[in-house]
Write a structure and sequence with these properties.
With 467 residues, the protein is of the alpha+beta class. A 10-stranded antiparallel beta sheet has the order 16-15-14-13-22-21-20-19-18-17, with no helix packed on it. An 8-stranded antiparallel beta sheet has the order 2-1-12-11-10-9-8-7, sandwiched between helices. A two-stranded antiparallel ribbon has the order 3-4. The chain contains 13 helices and 22 strands.
C-alpha cells in the first residue's frame, strides 16, 4: 500500500473527528493511527457495531445445534412472557427477520433523520425486552427493512435463553477468548441482559481481529469459529436498507454492505466501523466522533493498494506517513482568551437547570483553584439510576485535561473565555465517540447554556445559581 496515499487518509480522518484508523492487509498491520487525546490503550465503545458481534454469536448457537434454524419463530423462545399486541404477523416473526431488520415491529429510530424516539422510550422503560415485544406490528415480517436496535436486543435475549449465559459470557468463551481479546466491558439492561444493539467496548486492534475472522470466512488459526455459509450470506447481502442517504446499501445478518465496492461493514453511530474488503485482503477499523462517508473511505483505502506484494522502498513517502501519524497523535493547544474578573465571581457557584434536551441538571465550575475543575449533574432518565454526578479537571491553557478512566471511557475537557462574560467548554468523551461543545453566557446569578443535542439540534437552557 502506498504510504503517501495512507497519509492522505489519515489527514482526511482529522476532518471527520476520527479517534483511530487501523488498516490490516495480508495479515499485517499497515496503518495504526490514534488521534489525540484518544490513545491505543483506551477501549472504544463501538455503538451499533455491537450488533455484528451479537449476530455472530447467534451463528455459533445455530452451529452448536441449540438453535434449530434461523426461520424459527421468535415468540417460541420468549413464550413465558405476557406479550401485548399479538397477531398472526408477530407470531410469524423469525430469528432471520431480526437478523435482517425486517421484523415488521413498529419502531422509530430516526434512521432517515429525526429523533430516535423509540430508543428514548426504551431507555426509560423498566423492562426492555417487554417494551420491544409489546410493540405493535407495522408490517408483515420480511416485508420491509427498518433499522431497529430492538431486534438486536431480542437476539441477545435469545442467546441467553438458549445457552443459559449472557451474550457477553458466551462471547468471552467462544469468540473473544479464541481471538485473544481480553473480556471487554459490555453494558446490560435492567434485567442483566447484555445489550444487543450497542454497549460493547473494544480496542481498535480487537475490532480488527473480528474483521479478520470474517475476512477468512470464519476461520481463526485453523479453527472454524463461524460457519463459512454465514460469512458468505453477509458477503452477498440482498436486503435493501431503503437508505435515502445511500440507495445502494444492502443488509444481512446485522452487517451493512456496499455490493458495488465488494465491501461489508459492522457499523456503529459516529463511524465506529469494521470494514472488510475481501478482494483486497484488507480489514480497516475506524472510531470517530462524527459521521463518515463509507464509500469514500472504501475508495480511498482501495486506491492506496498498489500491488499484491511489497512495494519498493520509498523513504520520502514513508516519512510523510510517519509524520502524519505522529502529528495527529500529538495534541495542539487552542487559543484561550484572557481571564476576566467574572471567573472569580462564578467559581464555586452551582447553577441549576430545568428540564432540557441535553439533560444537564446542575453545573459548577472551579476556575480559580490551583487545579481547575468542574462538577456536573446529568439526568439519565433511566429507572433506578436517574441522576449521575460527574467531575474532573478542566484545562484552561488550550489543552484537554483527562478524568480518571471509567467503564464508559474518560472525559477530556478544556475551556476558554471568549469575552468578559462568555465561557466556552469543549468536552470529548474519549473512547465513547462523542464530543460536545457548549457556550455559557453569565449575567448576575443567571447563566444561558447553548450547544447541540446528540441529534445535532441547537439547544438553549437557562440556569440560575442555587444551593
Amino acid at each position: 500500500m502506498d504510504s503517501a496515499a495512507l497519509a492522505k487518509i489519515i489527514a482526511f480522518g482529522r476532518t471527520k473527528s476520527f479517534d483511530s484508523f487501523l488498516i490490516v492487509r495480508h495479515g499485517r498491520i499497515v496503518l495504526d493511527a490514534y488521534y489525540a487525546p484518544y490513545s491505543a490503550d483506551v477501549p472504544h465503545v463501538i455503538n451499533s457495531a455491537t450488533k455484528a458481534v451479537v449476530s455472530g454469536l447467534i451463528a455459533m448457537v445455530h452451529k452448536d445445534g441449540l438453535l434449530d434454524g434461523f426461520d424459527h419463530p421468535v415468540l417460541d423462545f420468549l413464550a413465558a412472557r405476557d406479550v401485548a399486541n399479538i397477531d398472526e404477523r408477530k407470531k410469524a416473526m423469525t430469528v432471520q427477520n431480526l437478523l435482517d431488520m425486517t421484523s415488521g415491529l413498529d419502531w422509530d429510530e430516526g434512521f432517515q433523520g429525526g429523533k430516535e424516539q423509540s430508543l428514548v422510550e426504551l431507555g426509560r422503560s423498566a423492562d426492555w425486552i417487554k417494551f420491544i415485544l409489546d410493540r405493535s406490528m407495522a408490517h408483515a415480517p420480511g416485508e420491509v427493512f427498518y433499522y431497529d436496535s430492538g431486534n438486536s436486543h431480542l437476539l441477545s435475549a435469545i442467546i441467553l435463553k438458549l445457552t443459559g449465559t449472557r451474550a457477553e459470557d458466551f462471547a468471552n468463551a467462544r469468540l473473544f477468548g479464541p481471538l485473544g481479546i481480553a473480556p471487554p466491558f459490555w453494558r446490560r439492561d435492567a434485567q442483566g441482559i447484555s445489550i444487543g444493539g450497542w454497549g460493547l467496548s473494544l480496542l481498535p486492534h480487537d475490532m480488527a481481529k473480528i474483521g479478520y475472522l470474517y475476512l477468512h470466512h470464519g476461520e481463526w488459526i485453523g479453527k472454524q469459529l463461524l460457519p463459512t455459509d454465514w460469512v458468505d450470506a453477509v458477503d452477498h447481502a440482498t436486503v435493501s436498507m431503503n437508505a435515502l442517504f445511500d440507495p445502494g446499501l444492502r443488509y444481512s445478518n446485522q452487517f451493512w454492505v456496499l455490493p458495488d465496492r465488494h465491501a461489508y461493514m459492522a457499523v456503529g453511530y459516529h463511524c465506529q466501523v469494521i470494514m472488510i474488503l475481501p478482494d483486497l485482503d484488507v480489514v480497516a477499523t475506524m472510531t470517530a466522533r462524527d459521521f463518515c462517508p463509507f464509500r469514500r473511505l472504501a475508495d480511498e483505502i482501495a486506491a492506496a493498494v498498489k500491488s499484491a506484494s511489497s512495494l519498493p522502498p520509498n523513504p520520502e513517502a514513508a516519512k510523510l506517513l510517519a509524520d502524519e501519524v505522529a502529528d495527529v497523535s500529538t495534541e495542539k493547544a487552542t487559543d484561550v482568551g484572557p481571564t476576566p474578573d467574572l471567573a472569580t465571581a462564578i467559581s464555586g457557584k452551582t447553577y441549576r437547570f430545568p428540564d432540557n434536551p441535553i439533560n444537564i441538571k446542575a453545573l459548577a465550575l472551579f476556575l480559580t483553584e490551583s487545579q481547575p475543575r468542574y462538577e456536573v449533574e446529568i439526568d439519565t432518565h433511566q429507572p433506578g439510576n436517574a441522576l449521575v454526578k460527574l467531575g474532573g479537571p478542566i484545562g484552561l491553557d488550550g489543552l484537554y485535561r483527562k478524568s480518571k478512566p471509567t467503564a464508559f471511557g474518560l472525559r477530556a475537557v478544556k475551556g476558554a473565555w471568549q469575552d468578559g462574560e462568555t465561557f466556552a467548554i469543549d468536552v470529548q468523551y474519549v473512547g465513547l465517540g462523542e464530543q460536545a461543545k457548549f457556550v455559557l453566557s453569565f449575567g448576575g446569578d443567571k447563566v444561558t447554556l447553548r450547544g447541540k443535542a446528540r441529534d445535532g439540534h441547537e439547544v438553549v437552557a437557562e440556569g440560575a445559581a442555587g444551593p
